[in-house]
């Protein structure tokens, strides 16, 4: 298969590819595909089955962020850090300000390796798939089929043309919006658009997709052929939610500031500082975002769409054991991100709105299943690469009473006197999501020790205090924490959940319903003229105010054993303080899902302290091992969250020396010479 290595070859290539069934197991039985993957236009577009097979390749080329090469990097914000063994990877290169490394780093999903099913590239695949969409739209007239079939095909192609453009824009800024499959003999001179101009074109395509796509594929005649197996296909609700997202992004402070400073389509930030403009949104775009996202949430609240929040009901929260006697086990929160003993079932449950293709059986075993836990004594198999959370992220997880530990005041974090947080018991009475996501000192990491070596058996409980056995910067955690949100701690050499017989499957959704609540709350706060506005339920969403949307996510995790309070009054005394709380809620709910860098970027905070410094937590353990566990039986004696510590404090790990140019990634040098109207991003 031909390797495309620049925009020109991707935009002006002439080959058609038909791979029907390569991405969805549901398609293998019904797509009428040819034996050869390279086919003529009259075959690709002649009927619905072939045409849909042509579109299936687009689904298959959506990058699986977690599985790019053997150890990928996708969290570029202040929330994550690699151990020293992973410093060559892209997240650490972002820390160094070395953004150019993205197009040489095969461990980064922005580039990866084009057309390798486990090493996919946002950059290469975007241009290729945009061309596929344009070719399909131009050839829809060749279809011999029904109006319904035509609408389904066009709806998907309009959706994907917008989606690939939008994903590129989030990292690189505005581009020419490509609506034609150009031939090499007619290279256009299309000027780069600003982000907002490009967003307007995305919005038009998302609107077309909304008009053409069904609410439920199973209720269409064409979709009935794969009834019950259409979950991964885009639908009307997907298009509606992305329409709201593109409006919110276009209305965010960075994009508003860039629109004022654009020069020939390329924005020029003045100086490295955001100059306090982080709360300055574009009201018109945010109004559209609020109305669109509010419409989507009304559909959810009425139960007229298939999407709903996953349930946060556990009999054992530390071990992610769903409560079988209380709630829908299959729609469990952990199953948004991974499944175990479910025959490699695709994660996402009823909350996932948009995912890529089914990743295949045992696809997580050699990369994402083994990059989150301690490598000391080989406790987790494979190489020594570890992704772990910063103290910055851990501090975002507030208290069970609904209060944050820290408040943002005048660009600094200050201790919140209302939180009740006790530095002598730093892990007590926290947000329930903390106990689901974060592995901290005293955590029972390996539950089954029989298969461990004598040396490994010493580490079944985490020693993450300063100087502890799991604090080695090469094989442990430099921050004092591990994370198990995306991969459970049982993926280790004792419990062996990453082995074949456990059917461990992982996939990180690009959009899920919780994000719609968060974006709606942000959009409503962005257009608020007073505190009363954030508590008002508008006509287009009469069941939810901005505050209600955040509280809905907190109600989801609230239980008798792990309570979670609503947004408190001191966090709603001003519009700006409520926006701070919405942003903190995003950091917690969407932690490690790849959104943090884009959020800090669009809020004009990427270059601003305290977001430029990554911290560790340092403390002394006061409890003995006998307090944590029985040395003979290795059974837990006390809950580690109740442990008392001393001298709990933060220490600086990394300071990111970022300038205004770092708000966008640079374009590859070989692509900026295509023509004069395609300039490099400023500062690069």
**Shape type:** globular
Oligomer: single chain
What class would the helix/strand composition place it in? Answer: alpha+beta
Helix content: 25-40%
Main sheet: strands, sense, barrel: 2 strands, antiparallel
Question: What is the count of helical runs?
Answer: 18
Distance between the termini: 33 Å
**Rg, nearest Å:** 25 Å
In total, the number of strands is 16
Beta strand %: 5-15%
Uncertain spans: 13-38, 114-118
What is the strand arrangement across the widest sheet?
1-8
Report the mean per-residue pLDDT as an integer.
Answer: 90
Task: Describe this structure as you would to a colleague.
- With 684 residues, the chain is α+β, with helices and mostly antiparallel strands.
- It has 18 helices and 16 strands.
- It has a two-stranded antiparallel sheet with strand order 1-8.
- A hairpin with a 2-residue loop joins strand 2 and strand 3 (266-267).
- It starts with 6 loop residues before the first helix and ends in a 29-residue tail after the last strand.
- The relative contact order is 0.13.
């Amino acid at each position: 298969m031909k390797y495309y290595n620049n925009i020109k070859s991707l935009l002006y290539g002439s080959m058609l590819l038909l791979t029907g069934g390569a991405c969805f197991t549901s398609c293998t039985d019904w797509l009428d595909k040819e034996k050869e993957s390279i086919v003529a236009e009259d075959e690709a577009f002649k009927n619905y089955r072939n045409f849909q097979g042509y579109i299936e390749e687009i689904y298959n080329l959506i990058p699986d962020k977690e599985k790019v090469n053997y150890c990928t990097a996708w969290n570029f914000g202040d929330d994550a850090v690699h151990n020293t063994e992973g410093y060559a990877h892209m997240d650490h290169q972002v820390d160094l300000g070395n953004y150019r490394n993205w197009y040489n780093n095969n461990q980064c999903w922005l580039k990866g390796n084009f057309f390798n099913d486990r090493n996919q590239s946002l950059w290469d695949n975007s241009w290729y798939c945009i061309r596929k969409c344009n070719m399909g739209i131009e050839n829809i007239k060749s279809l011999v089929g029904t109006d319904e079939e035509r609408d389904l095909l066009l709806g998907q192609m309009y959706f994907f043309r917008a989606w690939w453009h939008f994903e590129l824009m989030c990292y690189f800024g505005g581009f020419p919006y490509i609506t034609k499959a150009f031939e090499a003999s007619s290279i256009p001179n299309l000027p780069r658009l600003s982000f907002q101009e490009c967003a307007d074109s995305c919005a038009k395509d998302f609107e077309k997709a909304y008009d053409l796509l069904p609410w439920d594929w199973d209720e269409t005649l064409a979709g009935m052929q794969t009834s019950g197996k259409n979950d991964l296909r885009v639908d009307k609700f997907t298009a509606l939610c992305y329409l709201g997202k593109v409006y919110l992004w276009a209305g965010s402070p960075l994009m508003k500031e860039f629109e004022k400073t654009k020069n020939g389509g390329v924005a020029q930030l003045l100086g490295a500082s955001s100059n306090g403009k982080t709360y300055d949104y574009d009201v018109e775009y945010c109004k559209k975002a609020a109305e669109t996202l509010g419409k989507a949430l009304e559909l959810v609240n009425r139960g007229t769409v298939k999407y709903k929040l996953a349930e946060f009901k556990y009999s054992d929260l530390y071990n992610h054991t769903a409560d079988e006697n209380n709630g829908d086990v299959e729609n469990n929160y952990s199953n948004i991100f991974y499944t175990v003993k479910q025959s490699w079932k695709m994660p996402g449950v009823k909350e996932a709105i948009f995912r890529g293709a089914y990743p295949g059986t045992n696809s997580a075993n050699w990369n994402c299943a083994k990059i989150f836990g301690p490598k000391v004594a080989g406790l987790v198999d494979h190489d020594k690469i570890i992704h772990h959370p910063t103290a910055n992220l851990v501090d975002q997880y507030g208290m069970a009473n609904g209060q944050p530990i820290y408040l943002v005041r005048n660009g600094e974090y200050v201790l919140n006197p209302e939180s009740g947080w006790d530095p002598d018991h730093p892990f007590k009475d926290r947000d329930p999501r903390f106990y689901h996501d974060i592995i901290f000192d005293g955590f029972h990491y390996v539950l089954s020790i029989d298969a461990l070596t004598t040396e490994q058996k010493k580490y079944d409980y985490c020693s993450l205090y300063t100087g502890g056995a799991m604090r080695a910067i090469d094989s442990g955690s430099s921050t004092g924490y591990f994370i198990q949100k995306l991969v459970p701690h049982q993926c280790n050499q004792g419990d062996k959940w990453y082995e074949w017989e456990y059917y461990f499957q992982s996939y990180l959704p690009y959009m899920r319903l919780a994000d719609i609540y968060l974006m709606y709350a942000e959009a409503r706060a962005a257009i608020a003229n007073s505190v009363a506005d954030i508590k008002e339920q508008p006509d287009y969403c009469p069941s939810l105010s901005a505050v209600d949307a955040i509280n809905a996510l907190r109600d989801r995790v609230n239980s008798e054993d792990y309570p979670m309070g609503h947004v408190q009054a001191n966090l709603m005394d001003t519009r700006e303080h409520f926006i701070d709380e919405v942003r903190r809620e995003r950091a917690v709910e969407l932690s490690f899902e790849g959104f943090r860098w884009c959020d800090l970027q669009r809020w004009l905070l990427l270059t601003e302290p305290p977001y430029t410094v990554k911290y560790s937590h340092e403390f002394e353990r006061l409890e003995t091992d006998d307090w944590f566990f029985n040395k003979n039986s290795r059974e837990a004696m006390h809950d580690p969250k109740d442990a008392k510590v001393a001298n709990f404090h933060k220490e600086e790990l990394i300071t990111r020396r970022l300038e205004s140019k770092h708000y966008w990634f640079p374009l590859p040098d070989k692509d900026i010479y295509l023509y004069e109207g395609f300039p490099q991003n400023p500062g690069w």
